[in-house]
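# nightly structure sweep
# worker-07 picked up a monomer target from the shared queue
# config: single-sequence mode, recycle default, output format = structure tokens
# input follows
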Amino acid sequence: MLGIFRTNITTVQDRNNVINAISAQFAINACSVDLEDCDKVLRIDSPQSLTEQTIIDFVSLMGFNCAILD
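# output follows
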């Protein structure tokens, strides 16, 4: 699964918390949040068959907006 999402993550601490939580919960090859991009893009590369909705729900439970980036 390669997922690209728009978020409202704005701080380095929040970025690190989200990446660490995703990495702990799911098998992840790579995960990043681009804080300099206007869409605060979250990119996830996983060998698991994750659905985009799974990631959206997980990030939302952490208190952040998350949507598929068109």
